[in-house]
Amino acid sequence: MREAKGGDAATADIYATSSDGDTRFFGQPWALAHVFGVEMWERFSFYGMQGILLIYLYYTVTEGGLGIDKSVATGIVGAYGGAVYLSTILGAWIADRLLGSERVLFFSAWVIMAGHIALALIPGVLGVGVGLVLVALGSGGLKANATSVVGTLYSAEDTRRDGGFSLFYLGINLGAFFGPLLTGLLQTTLGFHWGFGLAAVGMGIGLIQYSIGRKGLPAAARIVPNPLPRSRYGMWAGIAVAGVAAIVLLTVTGVIRADNLALVVILVTVVAAIAYFVVVLSSPRIEPIERSRVFAFIPLFIVSVGFWSLYQQQFTVLTIYSDVRLNRDLFGWEMPVSWVQSINPIFIIILSGVFAAVWTKLGPRQPSTPVKFGLGAIIMGAAFLLFLVWANGGENTTPLLGIIGILFVFTVAELFISPIGLSVSTKLAPAVFHTQMIALFFLSVALGTAIAGELGKFYDPNDEVPYFTILGFIAIALGVALVLCVKPVLKLMRGVR
């Protein structure tokens, strides 16, 4: 995600030219295999764990779960997801100022594995708390830097760059596909902790493979772009200690609780986003044309938040829906709840290439970014309205093909917003705030994910119509509003489409 930073052309020219003739990994540099592998296994462990996390929280003790109220459980999952994306900012900062992307990626993988081990071995709420904190911090660090490391494998003239990133993206979705399948299978046959344990094993395999091959990565992957002066180490260490102490104090005193965790993450993310916008817009180092483009990013940010607040309910409301409403009978065998999480990666693998080909074919005739964002929100809202076909039905009344169809629409909406959002954030970014603008897009994902957890508290399986109707039409309204405002937004974008 931070390729433009870690994959800076000048840096790549210096260090990556030696890989220009290396075609040992499907025509790509062999070093890509190492990053491909660790990212694939990280996504395997991440989505494998997330596929069974919510039901572990709210299943009764006799069913192997913790017996937490469903509304509280969805809030915890939403807060955790939001924290992952918040942590990308921390991971990017540590890479840019202290360790470099490659080292942060390596250490983050260890932290992730430790988190999955905690979930597998530490019983009860304590294991969940320790495990989710570690996985969130580690996933944020790895997510922020894996793409950056891939960027260092190619010189500015290497035409294989886009193909390399496509292959890397394939690895992400392969892990996301197989993770929920295998952890769900273990969860239903042996128990939840075996599923969490498999996630730890998957991350361990990725770590072993990466540890063997990381020396083959270019020196550019280890560069610290903007080193923090040693004179400021003490100050930042003090800030870090004070921050951790404040979180511990607020938790001990009951200010931060399990039932308000999603709301806390929402508030923190809102404050961080506003602070980012204020810092960028008030900076004397940006030109008027750059300031105008940052203003143009604000409506895109809002629509992105609305989109992710619905899309990320795959891990909250859709999990409950799959447990209660979905007919998971496959020829007399009941499919694990988590297997639903493997549907979306299949569609992403299939459709991402189709969308890329369509945009390439259309060239300058393709819809502008605000139109794509608006269409993405409208399609996402329509996906929620599709739930109304089976709303308020009895147990196991929604056919599997129905959910597959709805998730197909989810994926189409995603491809109108997710890759486009990353692209436009780099195009609209002022020269001196390039990484911060990418961080702002991550903050929209963090905020939407936390809101998805908070919204899950209002989902009632016995009265689903208001929930899906209201959220569906809100998303559609957001998308329509942006489409109607395309001309003024494009004017602010000053030549960027």
Please outline what is shown here:
It contains 18 helices and two strands. The chain has 497 residues and is mainly alpha-helical.
Q: What do you see in this structure?
A:
This protein is mainly α. The chain folds into 2 domains: 1-225, Up-down Bundle (Growth Hormone, Chain: A), CATH 1.20.1250.20; 260-497, MFS general substrate transporter like domains (Growth Hormone, Chain: A). 72% of the residues lie in helices and 1% in strands. It is built from 18 helices and 2 strands. This is MFS transporter. It is found in: Cell membrane; Membrane. It is a multi-pass membrane protein.
Provide the structure class: mainly alpha
What is the count of distinct domains? 2
Largest sheet: 2 strands, antiparallel
Distance from N terminus to C terminus (CA atoms, Å) equals 20 Å
- The oligomeric state of the chains shown is single chain
Number of helices: 18
How many strands in all? 2
- Strand order, sheet with most strands: 1-2
Order of helices and strands: HHHHHHHHHHHHEEHHHHHH
CATH homology group of the largest domain: MFS general substrate transporter like domains
Helix content: over 70%
Please identify, by name, the CATH architecture of the largest domain.
Answer: Up-down Bundle
Beta-strand content estimate: under 5%
In terms of per-residue confidence, which ranges show pLDDT below 50 for 5 or more consecutive residues?
Answer: 1-18
Shape: globular
Mean pLDDT: 83
Rg estimate, integer Å = 22 Å
CATH C-level class of the largest domain: Mainly Alpha
